[in-house]
């Protein structure tokens, strides 16, 4: 009887945390401005911009004229405005590497010198599209939303892994899978690996081809149509080097 083969799949080093949640019309109008006539997107003179407000909100405690993010609620952290979506994953389109590791599971972070490099096929992408200029909209069917995303990169993962596993990695996400046969670059089993993801799409005026992609991240990874389990938390040990926000109205 052939023994099981055990593999670790590593993503690239970068990824993002994405949150989408409902906001009040007054919050939207305050930051976007009537008919989007502010000098710069989501910026108020002498107040900084919306990124500052959301990610460094303590600096705005004295500005009581800023409307609450949600009606009749105290302002909260950006990552808690997530009643529609909250996902944390590696970026789509990066190379993934496949490392064969000991089958008994005692060294899942082994770095295979003969690792296989692939770009997995994308299937089952969820698309969230929105209009970025909703001020003055007469439609009450689609909610006003706040979309936040971060830009994270693994830079300091090695020491965390050394402390816990005596290993190293620069992968934003890692997964463990088992097969009955060995994998190689000519193996048909490689084609059975695919990912599902989420994509935010801005202003799809002419359908999906007319919009602009804001961000694409991996949501899950599959082998032979079965979901593969994460080896560690996405972004463990990563550093945040950027963030972005958008105000809009969802198209459902």
Topology:
Elements: E1 5-10, E2 14-22, H1 25-32, E3 43-44, E4 48-49, H2 50-55, E5 85-90, E6 96-101, E7 116-118, E8 121-122, E9 126-131, E10 144-154, H3 158-165, E11 174-179, E12 193-202, E13 212-223, E14 226-227, E15 229-230, E16 238-250
Parallel strand pairs: 8-12, 9-12
Antiparallel strand pairs: 1-6, 1-11, 2-5, 2-10, 3-4, 6-7, 9-16, 10-16, 11-15, 12-13, 13-14
Beta-strand fraction estimate: 35-45%
Measured distance between first and last alpha carbons: 52 Å
Q: Would you count the extended β strands for me?
A: 16
Q: Given the C-alpha coordinates, what overall shape results?
A: elongated
What report would you give on this structure?
By secondary structure, the protein is mainly beta. It has one domain (5-250). It contains three helices and 16 strands. The protein has helices at 25-32, 50-55, 158-165, and strands spanning 5-10, 14-22, 43-44, 48-49, 85-90, 96-101, 116-118, 121-122, 126-131, 144-154, 174-179, 193-202, 212-223, 226-227, 229-230, 238-250. The strands form three sheets. Strands 2, 5, 8, 9, 10, 12, 13, 14 and 16 form a nine-stranded mixed sheet that branches. The protein has a five-stranded antiparallel sheet with strand order 7-6-1-11-15, with no helix packed on it. It starts with a strand and ends with a strand.
